Each structure stands twice: as structure tokens, then as C-alpha cells.
Amino acid sequence: MTTLVIKSVACSLCILNTLSSVSPNVLKSPTPNSLRHVMKAVLINEFGDPSVLHVEEIPIPKPSKDQVLIQVKASGINPVDTFLRQKAFGHIPPLPFIIGKEAAGVVVEVASDVGSFKVGDRVVCCLPFDGGYAEYLTCNSSNLIPLSERLTFSQGAAIYVAYFTAYRSLITKGSIKAGELALIHGGSGAVGIASIQLAKSKGLKVVATAGTQEGLEIVKQAGADVVVNHRETNHLQKALSEAGSKGFDIILENKACANLEEDLRSLREGGRIAVVGCEGTAEINPRWLLAHESQVFGIKMSAVTENDFKECTACLVKGMRDGWVRPIIAKEYKLEEAKQAHEDIMHRHGARGKLVFVMDQ
What we know:
Layout: E1 4-7, E2 38-44, E3 53-59, E4 67-77, H1 79-85, E5 97-98, E6 102-110, E7 122-126, E8 136-140, E9 144-146, H2 153-156, H3 160-172, E10 181-184, H4 190-201, E11 205-210, H5 213-222, E12 226-229, H6 235-243, E13 248-253, H7 256-265, E14 267-275, E15 281-284, H8 287-292, E16 295-298, H9 306-322, E17 329-333, H10 338-347, E18 354-358
Parallel strand pairs: 10-11, 10-13, 11-12, 13-14, 14-16, 17-18
Antiparallel strand pairs: 1-15, 2-3, 2-5, 4-6, 4-8, 4-18, 6-7, 7-9
Helix pairs in contact: 3-4, 3-9
């Protein structure tokens, strides 16, 4: 049998655009118009295990051209944060820096050239250069998304990484169409939940997997039509039988090292697989690609263009208004619990939604 061995230790969440420059949210002058001049932040002064995460007081940053100052209410916690902390990432910012790819909060100051947002606006902060684990942060106005009153700040802090990954996987690259059958592998995690909701909003029938009873309930809550336990033998065949289909049109794969070969066997003609996570190597038989004329592609957030960002933002703003964008929060932490939060995201078995920090302010 002809085989192809794919080696990977990456995930779409750890291929975010983190440039090797000092974080714009660290060591700036304090804002003179605020009642406070310092803020708490989780600062990394050295790379290593979770013990290197320390809460420190540093000056509140001042917005520069085209920026706003955000009072953070909640910050998202993602696997990429743990990779950055360990220096196990392609582009590492110099020390010290504040990690965190996403946050939600309230605009408290705007630069004079910003006309699209005003003080008091609720926003989601998309942070390709990090800075989310803090009580305040500055963000380019072009990287902000209005946050609907229908969602909490914790839910707002769960939008950028998960929903943008889902959108790029299923729409930008996956070209999904109404009536198709989607498989969301690992549907109880933040990206899985976002993918289920997005696929359903576009008229797809959705099969989703989870590995625990609680996870199975989560994917049902997210809107999956068919739910299966991926720890069971022949779970994909059972899912296809229940869905009344001979193959999936598109698969979102969170653990390609374990599932890619079986995914390829389960596609229908012209099927696609979006790989958003892989923790090791995968051995596949390329003949399955020939048999179905199928495609396998990876997803990285750093490839999102300005137009991609605007398109996805428009979809999510409408989704918040229509009610289908509904992040599910697994647990909330204080900044002082950063070490435990990183232990939990690295070692938890059976995801149940998003982990977030909430601020004491």
C-alpha cells in the first residue's frame, strides 16, 4: 500500500500573526485622563511552564494614531497562548510581553483620527500582536468588532479566534453550500461550537463529535443534527448511517494526527477536509484522495487578509444580531489564576466550550 506520512505539531490557533516586535500594549506611558494610571496584567519575563506567568502592575497604555483604549472586561484563553509561553512558536515577541489574542470590553478613550468607535462602545478586540491578559489594552480601530448587547463580555472574548477559524475553514477555504453534510470533529471545543453554529446558519446538516457525555450535550446545545462519541469504534460509519448519507462534503478536523485517514475514507466525491489542529504525525493512503477527488487543506489565521477580516466581521455582526453566534463558556478565571488556567487548557480532556479571564473592575 502506498502511504504518505505527514508530520505536524501545529494548529490553526498557533499560526496566528505574532511578529517579533515589542507588544504595543507593554510599557507605554499611562493615560492622563483616566482615574487610574496603572493596571494589572499577566506579564511574561521568561519562557517556560505556567510558573512564569506573573500578575504585575504596569502603566496603562495610551492610544496612538487610529487606536482606542479598551477597559477589558474579559479575555480569551487559547492553546496558542501556551505555545507562546513555552517559546514553541514560529514568531516569538521579545520579552517582556503580554499574551492573549482576544478580549472584550468598553472603549474608554479614542485617538483623534478614529471616527468609527466612541467612548462607551462595547467591542471585541482582535489582537494579532497579543496583549489580551490585561485590564486595559490599546487596539487598532480596524481590529475591533462591535459587541452586541445580546452577548456577555465573556462571550465576546470567545469570538475572534474560534469564529474566525471556523469562517476561514468552512467558507473562505471550504466553500460550503446549503444542503451539504458537515462533520465537526471535536465539536465541544470553542472552534467546534463556532463551526457548528456557522454551518447551521448556512443551511448545512451537521454531524458533530465529542468524547464525554457533557461534551455531547454541548454539541447538541450548539445545534448539531447528529451527535456521536468519537471514542466509540466506527463512530463515523454510525454517524453517516444516522445522517442517511454515504459521505461527508466537508470535515473540520481538530486532531488530524488521529483522524485524518478515517476522515479521507468518509468523504463523498469532491469532499474537503479543513485541518485546524494536529499534535503529531499522520499516516494516510493517498489513494483516498484520488478515489474521491478530495482536498485537504490547513488553516492559519495569519493568512486572513483585510478583505477577509471585513467579510467575516460582517457575517459575525449579523450572526450576533440574528442570534446564532452564541459562544459557550466553560469556565471563568481571574488574572491571578493564570497558572491554573494554562494547566487546565493544556491538560483538560473533553472540551466544554471556552476558557476566559474576567476582570475585577
